[in-house]
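Today's session is about reading a structure prediction critically. Students often jump straight to the picture, but the first step is always the sequence itself: look for stretches that repeat, for charged clusters, for runs of hydrophobic residues. Only then move on to the predicted structure, which in these notes is written as discrete structure tokens rather than atom positions. Here is the chain we will use throughout the hour.
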Amino acid sequence: ITPQRGGELDPGEIKNNYMDIFFKERPTDDLVKRYISKLEEYLDAHDVLISIEIKDHPFGPMVSTFNGAEIAKTYFWLGQVSIECERFGKISMRPPRFGLKEGISDKEIWIDAYQIQNEMYSNNSEFPARDDDYWKLWSNHLPQ
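Below is the predicted structure for this chain, in token form.
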């Protein structure tokens, strides 16, 4: 950081230079569609339909601090996730992540699919048997 005014550092400038901001922009409709499509692909053994509520305005920001200094702000655009499938019916849950960003990897989406699948089973108090469709997430879709 270079001092701006006569050799003095403005504390606000220091904070802003070191603060991470996550999910400041609303995710695009295209990004949300691609994300949902990939989740449904990974969970195809359950024939799920997934929808995600995207807020018009973000909740937040949630400010993270370390030793009293603000280090990060996170904006929350995602509302409830609704999952529908024949076996488990309709389930509503919190999103498995804080937000969506361009460049989200297949592995990150696979992890979200895993969390959603676990919620589907735990919500119905089911434990997957050896031949259950639960395991197809690994046998058919494990990302490299």
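Discussion point for the tutorial: The chain has one domain: 11-141.
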